Amino acid sequence: MNATRTPLRAAPAAGRLHLLVFRPPAEEVAPVCPLMKALDELEEARAASYVSVRDRIQYVTAHAALRGLLAAYTGLEPGRIAIGRGGEPYGKPRLIDPPVPLHFNLSHSHGLIAIGVAAAPVGVDVQRVPSPEAVEMVLPRLHPREREELRALPDEERALAFARLWTRKEAYLKGLGTGLTRSPAADYLGDRDARGRPDGWTVRNVPVQPGYAAAAALRNHPT
């Protein structure tokens, strides 16, 4: 899996991932950025539901940037891109009738945004490194071998290692389209045995600023 800037108005080549990781602006930019006006009704309603201005800016920026990137690949205007969800109401977002085979995924958390676009199913995730207490609460939900690996680490290394593992896991589950409706214990995404990870997927962490972890998952063949 290689992150790349690919030719526009065509899906990324097989095995290639166009990945963006960035921070949202510190203040509202809608008046000077046309992309901010391209959200659909559901996105506008979701944005309006945020009580925190910072969270609203992050949401709007993430979805506006996604539409801009999809517009570059499809040749459609950002506001005319139709995004639906497969299966359940909270299923994986997808393009409706895309002019090129295109998959995408989006994640935003605590001031960091990640967007992935590829010709095959893709998942991305960003997280802030949690507290040791939060790690202890989630450890029982992990795959047994993942728990064993984390327990073997020194206390001062465990939170970051957990964050890196959890972003790999969420990226993979988002790529599958299940999210956390699939048990986090069902699949091994640990560090010690890369061959023990799910077949047919490449899952890697992405370098980000201190205090955060990020990962991307890409299916090894288009669908």
Structural write-up:
The chain has a 4-stranded mixed β-sheet, with helices on one face. The protein contains 5 helices and 9 strands, in the order E-E-H-H-E-E-E-E-E-H-H-H-E-E. By secondary structure, the chain is α+β, with helices and mostly antiparallel strands. The radius of gyration is 18 Å and the shape is globular.
Write a concise keyword list for the protein shown above:
alpha+beta; 223 residues; three-stranded antiparallel β-sheet; four-stranded mixed β-sheet; transferase activity
Mean pLDDT: 88
Distance between the termini: 16 Å
| Number of helical segments with 4 or more residues | 5
The low-confidence runs, each spanning 5 or more residues with pLDDT under 50, are 2-7
SS content category: alpha+beta
Estimate the global geometry from the Cα principal axes. globular
**Structure summary, number of beta strands:** 9
Strand content bin? 15-25%
Radius of gyration: 18 Å
Protein name: 4'-phosphopantetheinyl transferase superfamily protein
Family: Belongs to the P-Pant transferase superfamily. Gsp/Sfp/HetI/AcpT family.
Keywords: Transferase
InterPro entries: 4-PPantetheinyl_Trfase_dom, 4-PPantetheinyl_Trfase_dom_sf, P-Pant_transferase_sf
